[in-house]
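Blinded run. Sample ID left blank on purpose so nobody reads anything into the name before looking at the predicted structure. Input follows.
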Amino acid sequence: MKHCHVTQTRTIMAPPDQVWAIINQITGMEDWYPGLIKSSHVDQDGDDIRRTCLMTNGGQLDERILLRDAKTRTFTYAIDRHPLPAMNVVGTFRVDDLKDRTGVSWSAQFTAKDEDADTMTQTVNQMYAAGLESLATFATK
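Blinded prediction complete.
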């Protein structure tokens, strides 16, 4: 087994509070990343927040929202079920104020079998890069 880490970053020409509001709302990922997510549903019981995303390819993501920190503009989630050959997936968005624009990083840590690690890392890098491009387009409409 191999521990993998992926990070993609993007500068977005929109105010950080606006970008953070898009990410922090939990629902609506299909609005800003329609290339990957077809629909989403959120269930909340107190502090226990779970999001289910139906992917455009028919796959399903079952996620637990672990952290939503408005002060640091950090959003962390764990993916408990997904169609990819990875385990213990934890993803994080971070939104940074760059004065007249916003810096966004989307990172993930996960474990994969040695023979799947390079492919998984490449796949997640591509998904996150495309997602940040889609987020930038949505945030600047």
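Unblinding after everyone has recorded impressions. Residues 91 and 108 are 4 Å apart (CA to CA).
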